């Protein structure tokens, strides 16, 4: 991966410190939660502070959904969708929001309401999940990561040293979503953004395969009335506690 990942690799030898975190071994910071809880913003900032690689797994499901939509693959064609998920080359440009699918910058295109809905649907398919989880595990074998999604602490890395479940009141999550989309063409109105979010949440929480779930050992953080800086500091504090001298300090 990029520069951020390479920095953390040095931790295997030189034991550098990033923001008070001693880097003796690869570290996985798993951040899960529903849409609009603040995961992306916080995960990116924490990764920056620690010099870890940031992985947005939602963007991976979105990239596969975009590819499937372009190819006209039916949502029922599980075999073909699994194949696309497995063949997709997905990269993240360190220090930016850029998402690359098969060499093409798809950063903007994967955020449309149509792709959001398709990503939520295809992410319920076991074959698609299998293929993307394999890529996610490979990424974390190459560098310390801050990885955000729905099942990172529960399924992808049950052994992650740091697990955080971010949540916020539904109205706050809908507001954040609207704000996020407000500078795009065809941004949805408040009512339809809230409806979309609710529908997506319902699907993500109730699907049979890897539903959105708080791992029993994840720290729960309600971000409704917290600033980004406060959430960032809470997560960094947890990272420091749980990685101190390689010992887990559970609070
Ligand atoms: O975080 P996001 O809204 O960009 O995610 C897009 C969709 O992918 C969302 O409906 C949930 C799904 N997803 C998932 O099932 N598992 C993940 N680890 C990440 C996202």
Question: How does this structure look, described?
Answer:
The protein contains eleven helices and ten strands. The strands form three sheets. A five-stranded parallel β-sheet has the order 4-8-3-9-10, with helices on both faces. It has two domains: 1-52 and 147-238, P-loop containing nucleotide triphosphate hydrolases (Rossmann fold), CATH 3.40.50.300; 57-143, Rossmann fold. Helix 5 (78-87) packs parallel to helix 7 (126-142). It has 251 residues and is α/β, with parallel strands linked by helices. It is globular and about 50 Å long. It has helices spanning 3-9, 11-14, 39-50, 57-71, 78-87, 113-122, 126-142, 152-156, 170-181, 190-206, 228-243; strands at 17-18, 21-22, 28-32, 53-56, 90-92, 99-101, 104-105, 145-149, 162-167, 219-222. The model is unreliable at 1-15 and 246-251 (pLDDT under 50). The structure holds 2'-deoxycytidine-5'-monophosphate (DC). 2'-deoxycytidine-5'-monophosphate binds at residues 35, 57-59, 61-62, 119-120, 123, 149-152, 200, 204.
From the structure above, extract its key features:
251 residues, Rossmann fold, 2 domains, 5-stranded parallel beta sheet, 14% strand, binds 2'-deoxycytidine-5'-monophosphate
Would you summarize the structure shown here?
The protein has 251 residues and is α/β, with parallel strands linked by helices. 50% of the residues lie in helices and 14% in strands. A hairpin with a 2-residue loop joins strand 6 and strand 7.
Mean pLDDT: 87
CATH architecture of the largest domain: 3-Layer(aba) Sandwich
Terminus-to-terminus distance: 33 Å
Helix count, DSSP H or I runs of 4 or more residues: 11
Helix share, percent: 40-55%
Give the CATH class of the largest domain. Alpha Beta
Q: How many beta-strand elements?
A: 10
Q: What's the shape?
A: globular
Q: Which small compounds were modeled alongside the protein?
A: 2'-deoxycytidine-5'-monophosphate
Query: How many strands, which pairing sense, and closed or not: the largest β-sheet?
Result: 5 strands, parallel
Structural class: alpha/beta
Q: Reading side by side through the largest sheet, how are the strands ordered?
A: 4-8-3-9-10
Name of the CATH superfamily of the largest domain: P-loop containing nucleotide triphosphate hydrolases
CATH fold assignment of the largest domain: Rossmann fold
Strand portion: 5-15%
Q: Uncertain spans, ≥5 residues at pLDDT below 50? A: 1-15, 246-251
Please write the string of helix (H) and strand (E) elements: HHEEEHEHHEEEHHEHEHHEH
Structurally, how many domains make up the residues? 2
Radius of gyration: 18 Å
């Amino acid at each position: 991966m990029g520069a951020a990942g390479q920095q953390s690799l040095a931790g295997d030898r030189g034991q550098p410190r990033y923001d008070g975190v001693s880097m003796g071994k690869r570290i996985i910071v798993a951040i899960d939660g529903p849409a609009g809880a603040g995961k992306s913003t916080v995960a990116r900032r924490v990764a920056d502070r620690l010099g870890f690689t940031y992985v947005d797994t939602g963007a991976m499901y979105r990239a596969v959904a975009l590819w499937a939509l372009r190819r006209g693959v039916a949502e029922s064609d599980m075999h073909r969708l699994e194949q696309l998920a497995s063949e997709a080359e997905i990269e993240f440009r360190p220090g930016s929001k850029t998402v690359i699918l098969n060499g093409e910058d798809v950063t903007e295109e994967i955020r449309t309401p149509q792709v959001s809905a398709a990503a939520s649907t295809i992410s319920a398919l076991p074959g698609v999940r299998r293929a993307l989880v394999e890529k996610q595990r490979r990424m974390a074998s190459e560098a310390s990561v801050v990885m955000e999604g729905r099942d990172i602490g529960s399924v992808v890395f049950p052994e992650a040293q740091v697990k955080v479940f971010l949540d916020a009141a539904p109205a706050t999550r809908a507001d954040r979503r609207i704000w996020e989309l407000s500078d795009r063409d065809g941004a949805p109105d408040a009512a339809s953004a809230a409806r979309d979010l609710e529908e997506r949440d319902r699907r993500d929480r109730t699907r049979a395969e890897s539903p959105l779930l708080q791992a029993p050992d994840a720290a729960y953080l309600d971000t409704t009335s917290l600033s980004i800086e406060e959430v960032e500091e809470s997560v960094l504090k947890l990272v420091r506690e749980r990685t101190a001298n390689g010992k887990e300090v559970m609070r």
